[in-house]
């Protein structure tokens, strides 16, 4: 027969075991819950940033249409907003029929939102690109280009940043854009048909290639990007009778 002392020890041990299980369960639930909440919060911040960059892309179109300046606020929320120097574009128009090809080359200076948990969103040549922490990048909003049967309207955006090159913290930053107005670089119709080649140097050549291919271009990789070094993709479209190229210089700044 068990004594009262043995019974007391047994009850104490049982209580300790049950209490330990409860604490462990609460700790597990807390850890999982906090992790899921943080993931949800981070995803919401990225979505908000992408929406803000969509507005920036709208601002680029406004500047092409004659607006002198535009400004949009972006919540930083632990991220970093900066101007990058890792992208450029070269455009060549061959009028065909023995005409002389014309080329334009310029730096893109994209605005980049570096996500705290990894990945980024960027505004480059009027397009919005998104790269996840897993390294899967895509053009989520295309460039201001129009391909319509045998006509091509290509808008080129040369961004030049002034002032502070990066802003971090937990507040908001106002991204201001200003321009002196668009210029028509080329506007010709040719029954012999034009061919247009667009070379893009960027850390995200695959994303650019998929974007231009969706518009009817044929793309080849000239060089693959590596860590810290952008690559280059070359995209060509032919059989275009009328080509119009409009260019604008946009000055960006952080306020």
Name the structural class: alpha+beta
Strand content: over 45%
Instruction: Sketch the major β-sheet.
Output: 9 strands, mixed
Order of SSEs: HEEEEEEEEEEEEEHEE
Which segments are poorly predicted (pLDDT under 50) over 5 or more consecutive residues? none
For the record, give the distance between the C-alpha atoms at the N and C termini, rounded to a whole number: 82 Å
Roughly what percent helix?
25-40%
Count of DSSP E strands? 15
Q: How much is the average pLDDT? A: 88
What's the number of structural domains? 1
Rounded Rg: 27 Å
- Please state the overall shape, judged from the principal axes of the Cα atoms: elongated
Number of helical elements: 2
Described by its quaternary structure, the protein is: single chain
Describe this structure in words.
InterPro entries: DUF7289 (IPR055713). It is a single chain. The protein has about 260 residues and is of the alpha+beta class. It has one domain (about 40-255). The protein is about 30% helix and about 45% strand. It has two helices and 15 strands. It has helices at about 5-65, 205-215, and strands at about 70-75, 80-85, 90-95, 100-105, 110-115, 120-125, 125-130, 135-140, 145-150, 150-160, 165-170, 170-180, 185-200, 220-225, 230-255. Strands 1, 3, 4, 9, 10, 12, 13, 14 and 15 form a nine-stranded mixed sheet that branches. A six-stranded antiparallel sheet has the order 8-7-6-5-2-11, sandwiched between helices. Strand 5 and strand 6 form a beta hairpin. The model has no long low-confidence stretch (mean pLDDT about 90).
């Amino acid at each position: 027969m068990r004594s009262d002392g043995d019974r007391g020890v047994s009850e104490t041990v049982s209580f300790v075991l049950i209490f330990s299980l409860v604490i462990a369960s609460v700790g597990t639930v807390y850890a999982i819950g906090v992790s899921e909440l943080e993931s949800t919060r981070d995803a919401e911040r990225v979505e908000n940033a992408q929406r803000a960059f969509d507005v920036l892309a709208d601002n680029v179109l406004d500047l092409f249409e004659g607006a002198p300046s535009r400004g949009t606020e972006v919540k930083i929320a632990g991220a970093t907003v900066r101007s990058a120097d890792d992208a450029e574009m070269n455009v060549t128009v061959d009028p065909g029929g023995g005409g002389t090809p014309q080329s334009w080359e310029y730096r893109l200076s994209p605005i980049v939102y570096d996500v705290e948990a990894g990945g980024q969103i960027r505004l480059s040549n009027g397009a919005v690109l998104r790269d996840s922490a897993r390294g899967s990048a895509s053009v989520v909003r295309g460039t201001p280009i129009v391909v319509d049967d045998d006509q091509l309207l290509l808008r080129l955006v040369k961004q030049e940043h002034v002032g502070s090159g990066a802003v971090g913290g937990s507040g908001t930053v106002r991204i201001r854009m200003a321009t002196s107005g668009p210029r028509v670089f080329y506007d010709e119709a040719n029954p012999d048909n034009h061919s247009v080649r667009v070379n893009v140097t960027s850390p995200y050549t695959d994303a650019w290639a998929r974007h231009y291919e969706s518009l009817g271009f044929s793309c080849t990789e000239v060089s693959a990007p590596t860590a810290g070094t952008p690559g280059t993709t070359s995209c060509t479209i032919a059989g275009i009778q009328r080509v119009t190229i409009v260019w604008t210089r946009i000055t960006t700044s952080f306020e």
